[in-house]
Write a structure and sequence with these properties.
The complex is a heterodimer of chains A (498) and B (323). Chain A is of the alpha/beta class and 498 residues long. Chain A has 17 helices and 22 strands. In chain A, a hairpin with a 2-residue loop joins strand 16 and strand 17. Chain A is globular. Classes of the chains: A alpha/beta (498), B mainly alpha (323).
């Protein structure tokens, strides 16, 4: 029997980095299949290949038994495959109708046929029972409404297969419920749905079948709803930890950072925790669980709503990143190129930028000291460069990250915060960064880091905090740290549609 | 300095070509005149350079020159203020307006282009209103004050020509600006901010206050040069005094190596840029080109300079990439 959609032996690598190897997937008419896996497991890449955004290196895609190659999303759309993206893809400054028919506008006498546009849009919206005026600007819509408009648009091309890529990551619980209802309705209309998510409760609720990917390979498949959460988690994570970490226990000092009843944003619950000198604490959680915001709020980038921060037992007030640096906090930000390294500046200028002894703009630069400090960190962090004068943009990602680390360390902080410290960093540099973090902890630095990679959390943390929906749902000491334990806490707080 | 070599060659070439066509170019009076105008325009160009380095733009420079320049004689002669009070007051006004620009841009997040475009319209309009659009000047009074701009210094006979005093004022400003940009943390922060504002903020730099300082410096330098301009020429019409000066300032800064994207600056380059512009204006008169063509010539040369530089840069990059 021929399946509606069949992908077989799909391989894809980006610049030597293998994302998918030999992945297969099938989809029937009226079936909801969920694709699950960790961040970086290859879910989104597979989804993008199916709808023509990314082209596979090898492998076949057949539609009703007919071999297809999509070199552009338009071709996938013509074959009635649509996608609703994780990040919403609507032009905010255009109306719903203009967005709806973007690139497919009906034309009469060489001009836009506005009447027809409105008609088509109204029809499309009514299919999802959306009471929206086609003339409304997208910028006036809520996130959930925008997503509905996207779904309606995707369906307006007589779509037989609709792919959802992490659709609920930007939705509230209420809106997520609504979305799941719409998916059930589409299923009853015979639309085949591929649902990419790592939110297990909703996956279990709506799927007929669940396909798991791990490290770019199929790692399991099960019929829902008869499968237990535990087995799903095993399908997602069950792998050996390759030890690139080299964790060794070390004595902990006194309390360096205390966060008390701290509420970062209105999406967050009040949180209390401490980090001791010499301790490495990881914050785990799913994307959108509010980890980065918590870190940024501690660092003064987002004004926090309530609560207290204490450094070495002293209450401090932080309203800007400058306050944070002044109070012996340092941050390695999430986005290296946007928030971290200044690409057009030399390595030296980057490293000395946050120096606390000379932080007033009116203090004189001490070039011999600057050279000494930057050369010290270039050497101790093994930054591969010809000289400190070299522009940072000429360095590899891993070395740029070390430059940012050097800047943090040059400020002699008591607490080092890191947001995704090894994102986009190759394995070699990764190992060096871990070794450095252990060495810093050994010297008494308190380290608090956020990571989406469970392996990393388990590999280097003395203790892990797990966040879910803006709340710290648990704290796991090193001896009980496992991917299973983290995943259970990370998805524990998700309310599911009844 | 290596970066400015091309620009310096262009300046020398312009001087030689002009001299070949009209040998009065190197006459003492012409050189003195050129030096004075270069000095005055250098002051506003240095101000523009600070703002451009921060990644912003200031379009209100010409109107600020007009505001301070015409209100100085208006306050002193028409309204009988003592000149020290008037100068201090007007410079304070310029500084406050600069701070106002900076605050609107950093706190209200308005775009620098819009804020200073409104400044351009506002300050000239206010000046014309206050003065009733009448020509302002010192007449025969305030000779002592005017000598600040008019004195020529021969360095005790060492110099063959009288060097206008404003040259020394501009030189001091350039030295202080260079010092702030290269020897103080301020310059490090300003460049970092111009190159990547988000990263600069994450690094603990108070980016907002650095930006405000840049706009204040720009406005105050425009004010100072407005005063020197009026002391020099003695009379000015509020309707056209300082017209387009912001464009001369921005052009000099860009010719001198400032990137409108922010983060790059060289004060010596800015001054060579300002000098080139004045030599071109001078050449148009000496070479007998109709003055109506002035803007066309200046626009063309700037385009040529900036375009050639980009082409040369691309070519050298390609050469270093292949080698």
């Amino acid at each position: 029997m021929t399946k509606l959609l069949e992908a077989h032996g799909v391989c894809k690598s980006f610049g030597g980095n293998t994302v998918l190897s030999d992945v297969s997937l099938t989809l029937e008419r009226g079936e909801v299949v969920s694709l699950i896996g960790e961040n970086g497991a290859g879910k989104s890449t597979l989804a993008k290949i199916l709808c023509g955004i990314v082209q596979p290196d090898r492998g076949t895609i057949t539609l009703n038994g007919e071999l297809k190659t999509f070199s552009h999303p338009r071709e996938a759309l013509a074959a009635q495959i649509g996608i609703v993206h994780q990040e919403l893809n609507l032009a905010e400054n255009l109306s719903i109708a203009e967005n709806f028919l973007l690139g497919h506008e009906p034309v009469r006498y060489g001009m836009l046929d506005r009447g027809r546009m409105e008609e088509i849009t109204r029809e499309g919206l009514s299919r999802l029972a959306l009471p929206l005026d086609p003339h409304r600007l997208v910028s006036t819509l809520s996130t959930a409404q925008r997503q509905m408009v996207e779904i309606a648009r995707a369906l307006s091309f007589d779509t037989r297969i609709l792919i959802f890529d992490e659709p609920t990551s930007s939705l509230s619980d209420e809106d997520a419920k609504l979305l799941l209802q719409i998916i059930k309705m589409l299923k009853s209309q015979g639309v085949a749905i591929l649902y990419v998510s790592h939110r297990l409760p909703e996956v279990q609720e709506i799927s007929d079948r669940i396909v798991a990917l791990r490290d770019g390979r199929n790692s399991g498949e099960a019929a829902s709803p008869h499968i237990h959460r535990e087995s799903l988690i095993r399908m997602i994570v069950g792998r050996e930890l390759s030890d690139i970490y080299g964790y060794k226990p070390r004595p902990l000092g006194s309390e360096a950072l205390r966060v008390e009843d701290f509420r970062a944003t209105d999406r967050h619950a009040p949180t209390s925790f401490t980090v001791r000198a010499g301790e490495i604490v990881g914050i785990a959680g799913l994307v959108g669980s509010g980890r980065s915001e918590l870190l940024e709020s501690i660092f003064g980038l987002i004004p926090h709503l309530s609560g207290e921060l204490l450094i070495n037992g002293n209450p401090i007030s932080i309203t800007s990143p400058k306050d944070a640096w002044d109070n012996k906090l340092a941050l390695v930000p999430e986005s290296r190129k946007d928030q971290g390294v200044i690409l057009e500046s030399s390595i030296r200028e980057n490293i000395i930028l946050s120096d606390r002894e000379q932080q007033s703009p009116w203090s004189l630069r001490d070039s011999s000291n600057e050279r000494k400090v930057s050369d010290h960190f270039i050497e101790s962090l093994h930054i591969r460069c010809v000289s400190g004068e070299q522009l940072s943009k000429s360095l590899s990602g891993g070395n740029q990250q070390k430059v940012v680390l050097g800047r943090c360390l040059a400020a002699k902080p008591a607490v080092l915060l890191l947001d995704e410290p090894t994102r986009g960093v190759d394995v070699g540099a990764r190992r060096e960064i871990y070794a450095l973090l252990f060495q810093l902890a050994e010297q008494g630095m308190a380290i608090l880091f956020v990571s989406s990679e469970l392996e990393e959390i388990i590999g280097i943390s003395d203790r892990a905090l797990v966040m879910s929906d803006g709340e710290v749902t648990g704290e796991i000491p090193r001896q009980s740290l496992s991917e299973h334990a983290i995943m259970t806490l990370a998805s524990s707080h998700q309310k599911v549609a009844a | 300095m290596k970066k400015n070599l091309g620009l310096l060659l262009l300046l020398i070439a312009a001087c030689i070509v002009t001299y070949c066509i009209n040998d009065r170019f190197f006459a003492a009076v012409n050189i003195e005149n050129l030096l004075r105008r270069t000095a005055l325009f250098s002051l506003i160009s240095i101000g523009a350079a600070f703002v451009i380095t921060s990644g912003g733009i200031d379009l209100s420079i010409g109107s600020m020159v007009c505001l301070v320049g015409t209100l100085l004689p208006w306050l002193t002669t028409t309204n009988g203020w003592a000149w020290p009070t008037a100068t201090v007051f007007l410079l304070a006004v310029a500084g406050l307006l600069g701070a106002f620009h900076g605050l609107l841009i950093t706190k209200l997040k308005l775009q620098p282009f819009i804020v200073t475009l409104c400044g351009l319209l506002l300050y000239r309009g206010v000046t014309r209103g206050l003065t009733g659009d009448q020509t302002q000047g010192f007449g025969l009074e305030f000779e002592g004050l005017r000598s600040v701009a008019l004195t020529k210094i021969t360095l005790g006979g060492l110099s063959p020509i009288g060097i206008p005093s404003v040259v020394f004022i501009a030189l001091s400003a350039a030295l202080i600006a260079s010092f702030a940009l290269n020897r103080m943390r301020f310059g490090l922060y300003l460049r970092a901010l111009g190159r990547n504002e988000v990263a600069a903020r994450y690094s603990g730099i108070n980016t907002d206050s650095i930006k405000v300082v840049a706009y204040v410096l720009c406005a105050v330098l425009a004010g100072v040069s407005g005063m020197l301009f009026i002391l020099d020429v003695n009379s000015a019409q509020p309707s056209d005094f300082g017209n387009f000066y912001e464009l001369y300032a921005i052009a000099a800064a860009v010719l001198g190596g400032c990137s409108l994207r922010g983060g790059e600056v060289s004060i010596s380059g800015v001054i060579i840029g300002a000098a080139l512009m004045q030599v071109l204006r001078n050449a148009i008169v000496l070479v007998d080109i109709p003055t109506q063509l002035e803007f066309a010539i200046i626009g063309g040369v700037i385009l040529l300079g900036v375009g050639t530089e980009e082409i040369v840069r691309k070519a050298t990059r390609r050469m270093t990439a292949t080698s």
